[in-house]
Amino acid sequence: MGLRQALPGRMSGMAMPFRLLSRRAGPLGLALTAYDIWRRLPPKQRRQILEATRKHGPRVAARVMNGAKRAPRRPR
Question: Which pTM value belongs to this model?
């Protein structure tokens, strides 16, 4: 093959993003995906995220709690 074509079992450029998106979308899948992305970040970007979380996290949590109070409850 003249061009480097993706064959089954061969790593291609699309393998990594597909792996990130193919996990189940439940709470555990979300946590595993976040951890996977976190590991790939350089230390400087990790610090930036932590600083932004410390600054804006309490506001976001308060808005979520207010929204949860107003939302109608669904029967289980």
Answer: 0.50
